[in-house]
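@here heads up, posting the sequence + SMILES for the zinc ion run so it's all in one place. Ping me if the SMILES looks off, I pulled it from an old spreadsheet.
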Amino acid sequence: MKLLESILVTGVRVLDPVSGLDGIRDVLLAGGGLEFVDGTSPVPEDATRVDGGGKWLFPGLVDMHVHLREPGDEESETVKTGLAAALAGGVTTVGVMPNTDPPMDSPSRVEELLDRAAKVSPVTVVPIPCVTMGRAGIEPTDLRAMMEMGVKAFSDDGDPIQDPRILLAALDAVAAVNGVVIEHPEDKRLSGGCMNAGGTARRMGLTGIPSKSETVDVARCLELASGAPGRLHLTHLSLPRSVELARSDPFRSAGATVDVTPHHMALDERAVEESGSMAKMNPPLRSPEDRKELVEMVAKGMVNAVASDHAPHFPGKKDLPMPEAAFGITGLETLLPVTLEILGNAGMQPLEILALLTTGPASILGIDAPAIVHGGRAECVLFDPAREYFLKDENMYSRSRNTPFAGRLLRGRVEMVWIGGPVYREGVS
Ligand SMILES: [Zn+2]
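bot reply: prediction finished. Complex structure tokens:
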């Protein structure tokens, strides 16, 4: 088995959030390009024919919130393994968060990431460097120098930008490039626990993280962003109240964008009873009522993007009692099947769901989303939405396996990925 250089996919459902196309086509992928063909078009003799019946072809996904761990924690993930996991998940563009060791807080560190990524993977990497040096919240980074390199998105993810003067100055600065400041909404003085504050935490005798540790910071940032020239994005919102704050008066005019994760839509706090520290993340899985309402808000169009918050950890950091275990779960390889299942059940159409994974995050990051264009470059995914499989170690590419979805039956499988040529085929490493 190997990658197929030239392939004709017949009768495939093409879904393109950029053009709005949702229809059956015959698609030729050859020489790095993509063409729609009919009976009269020339097809190379060596093209492999694939029956696309029941399958989907859509643009490569954009995951705007990913932790690659290199440098500093290569035992958990490297740029190479993380980007391999991205391809296996149908993701061809990743927004890379800066909380590595050392953190990505200068032009040279941005350069290092881009160089490393270009050497090991065809995936497009969008660096999201720090707003403050070392993510320490005290001294601003040189945003202008990084913007001159083409950087548009900045974040101290893992920590909020506590100092309002620094957040305001960053919102001012990024406006010059239609950039964005991405806030990890949390007031650390209110958090402190290891799971959602509520019935399950009480039953398990664990310290809880109250809702207000998130919503108070959401409200603070929205007030600061109101009238500011640059864009604010609030990432991994776990609570309906957070989305409501961003979308209703008096904060609607702040124009902030928001994303949610698949796990906050799929799971609630009770998953901690079942999966222990594999279901420990920050923000935590919330109550069953919160989860349900959050999904309804996504289905109503109140959320701009779905992002994995892929947070790999080697076993030594996760195989621990809840209070000591690290926060975070892997997500690149479960992003699409989990999101499709939850939002499909909530009544959303495939094209609308794919928009949350392509055009939505791309416009937040200030980049062009990959599109399906006749005669254009092939940056696309062949996907079987009906294929069911159990998520097992041997079919994961991430170096880490810390996911509460391990062993679960997933529906929908990425079969092939192209980025200006074939770059991934299921079962070929
Ligand atoms: Zn975060």
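MO: The CA atoms of residues 189 and 210 lie 11 Å apart.
MO: One more: The chain has a mean pLDDT of 96.
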